[in-house]
Design the sequence.
């Protein structure tokens, strides 16, 4: 597992070094799933987010979004 982070700013994932790293990992089949906390972390523009998702899928990987559980609440684990 590798954590890839980058500062917020550029809306086009293809222009960001972090997303380029994610795509490199997908192209070499080192990953099959990307966990992202917020959809806008991929891109605040939905059309760019969908393009990025399709590019990942073309290499056999997918994006999964998660939101933190509020303190004191139980977390349900869903396994595919």
Sequence:
């Amino acid at each position: 597992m590798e954590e890839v982070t980058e500062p917020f700013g550029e809306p086009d994932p293809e222009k960001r070094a972090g997303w380029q790293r994610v795509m490199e990992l997908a192209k070499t089949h080192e990953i099959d799933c990307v966990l992202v906390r917020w959809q806008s972390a991929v891109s605040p523009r939905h059309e760019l987010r969908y393009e990025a998702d399709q590019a990942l899928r073309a290499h056999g990987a997918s994006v999964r979004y998660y939101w933190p559980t509020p303190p004191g609440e139980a977390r349900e684990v869903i396994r595919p």
